[in-house]
Design brief:
It comes from Massilia norwichensis. It holds the Pfam family Response_reg. InterPro entries: Bact_response_regulator, CheY-like_superfamily, Sig_transdc_resp-reg_receiver. By secondary structure, the chain is an alpha/beta fold. Helices cover 42% and strands 21% of the residues. The protein has 5 helices and 5 strands, in the order βαβαβαβαβα. It is globular, with a radius of gyration of 13 Å.
């Protein structure tokens, strides 16, 4: 299939191993995946090739996932998003229409939710 017709997911996590696992799994499931390792990298990636959905870790150095999603939604209101955190209490309330999953997340369940979001 032509990659340009695949749904595009931007994964943002400061841990390279996590980004790699998400990229591999989601690619196998038929998505086009970009990975960024910081909020700033994610903003650059978004501007270069806007995704259909963003999956972001909450706790990252510099810019946390909530701030990143606020900045991305300023560029594209209503952007579908998933936030993931190892410490859900730290996250607090999230933006509207952001699905939240605690770590470790089941990638199978995550894909089920992505299919309803896209």
């Amino acid at each position: 299939m032509d990659d340009s017709k695949l749904k595009h997911i931007l994964v943002v996590d400061d841990e390279e191993a996590v980004g790699y696992v998400f990229e591999r799994y989601l690619s196998i499931k038929g998505y086009r995946v970009s990975v960024a390792y910081s909020g700033e990298q994610a903003l650059d990636a978004f501007r270069a090739d806007a995704p259909d959905v963003v999956i972001t870790d909450y706790k990252m150095p510099g810019m946390n996932g909530d701030e990143l999603l606020r900045r991305l939604r300023a560029l594209q209101p209503g952007l579908p998003a998933v936030m993931i955190s190892a410490n859900p209490i730290e996250v607090g309330p999230t933006l509207e229409q952001v699905r939240f999953f605690p770590k470790p997340v089941s990638l199978e369940i995550l894909v089920e939710h992505l299919e309803t979001m896209l």
